[in-house]
Amino acid sequence: MSRFEKQTVLVTGGAGGQGASHVRALHAEGADVVIADIDAERGAGLAAELGDGARFVRLDVSREESWAAAVAETEKAFGALTILVNNAGVQNPPALIESTDRATWTRILDINLTGTFLGIKAAAPALRRAGGGSIINIASTMGIGGTAFYAPYVASKWAVRGLTQTAALELGRDNIRVNAIHPGVVATPFITEPAAGSDAPIADFYSPEPFAVPRLGQPADITALLLFLTSPQAAFITGAEYVIDGGLLLGPALRKEAA
Questions:
Q1: Could you give the CA distance from residue 37 to residue 129 in angstroms, rounded to a whole number?
Q2: Beta carbons of 62 and 44 less than 8 angstroms apart
Q3: Which of 1, 158, 167, 192 is the most buried (most CB within 10 A)?
Q4: Residue 116 CB contacts under 8 Å (≥ 6 apart), including other chains
Q5: Cα–Cα distance between 81 and 63 in angstroms, integer?
Q6: Domain map (residue ranges) of the chain
Q7: CA–CA separation, 86 vs 14, rounded Å?
Q8: What is the CATH superfamily name and number for domain 8-243?
Q9: What share of the chain is helix, strand, coil (3-state, %, to 5)?
Q10: Structural element, H or E, at residue 28
């Protein structure tokens, strides 16, 4: 029996980058997967590629009615929802706080924070109906420490940490586990291509050379951790934070000859 057979998973931002990696891996391990994304062309294309057991649902994570429709469509298509992956997120163009306009601040928090809140709110009753399940919130190492020029994104991901722990306390007695993953610099378009309104990608400012593991992360690295946390092997883990960054937050690793 595959690890995720008889499981139904909804992945937000599931059409590309890390989301698509999670979708493919969960589907390969037997899950029915709902690809929830605002990009209908890519989402429908991925669902068609995967075939049976995959469905695309258009979802604007910042809109409560869109969430209600996505959860209802998930249950209609595959039955009980057992896993939610709050993966959708956007980055702000780099700017000083004093140069960041209110519209940018609001957009980033609407998607990264409010979108996660609305996802938990919409999915919790469905997970309860299923007899329990798991929620994974994809946060960031920028939610662990301050990062200059990215105040909206940093604030949104710090807030996701508190939201994760609060949800874990509220939902634990319903057999629903809630955990957060904090990726570092991962080689996806989110990192390797400029954010809207920016001239340079984040990867230009983060050379992996000083990392203890001197490379950029790959989507498969994050997916491997996600598969563990949503599996029965993690049944006693909730409210936890997992940093997966190759040692980025540890600081520079000195070369042996410098010791």
A1: 24
A2: no
A3: 167
A4: 61, 86, 137, 160, 163
A5: 20
A6: 8-243
A7: 9
A8: NAD(P)-binding Rossmann-like Domain (3.40.50.720)
A9: 50, 15, 35
A10: helix 17-28
Residue closest to 135 by CA, chosen among 108, 104, 110, 166: 166
User: Residues 161-190: pLDDT tens digits?
Assistant: 999 999 999 999 999 999 999 999 998 876
Q: Count H helices, E strands: the chain? A: 8, 7
Report the distance separating Cα 197 and Cα 70, nearest Å: 30
Sequence-ordered alpha helix ranges (H) in 79-214: 102-109, 115-129, 151-171, 189-192
Q: Which helix (H) or strand (E) holds 137?
A: strand 133-138
Predicted model pTM: 0.93
**Cβ-contact 176, 134 below 8 angstroms:** yes
What residues act catalytically? 153
Q: What's the rounded Cα separation, in Å, for the pair 185 and 170?
A: 31
Q: Please give the structure tokens belonging to residue 28.
A: 């390969």
